[in-house]
Amino acid sequence: MKLIIKLLLTALAVVILARILPGVAVEGYGSAIIVAIVIALLRLIVKPILVLLTLPITIITFGLFILIINAIIILLADYFVGSFAVSSIWWALLFSLLLSLFQAVLFSLLKED
């Protein structure tokens, strides 16, 4: 049940950010839910692989390359979901930073058992 609530909160954050950021577009709430699911799956499957493959550059940049990996995850979601569009990697970077911030705030509202 908590997973569904987190996905819905992420979809809400995607809709809000798409309305705020001019370089990001999502067609509707249903598409935002699909985007939230795709981003969750990409973070679960692809991100650990990318982190492992780019470990040397991540160490050299003191972990800042993780931000680029998050932007790549957003661009991959753009590729897989037709109703979600991000115009450049810079918008994807800003979107991923703000999405993480929104998720931290929204998830903190959930009560822990």
UniProtKB/TrEMBL annotation:
Keyword annotations: Membrane, Transmembrane, Transmembrane helix
Pfam family, one: Phage_holin_4_2
Regions that span the bilayer: 28-46, 53-77, 89-110
Domain of life of the native organism: Bacteria
PANTHER family to which the protein is assigned, alphabetical: SLR0284 PROTEIN
Stated name of the protein: Phage holin family protein
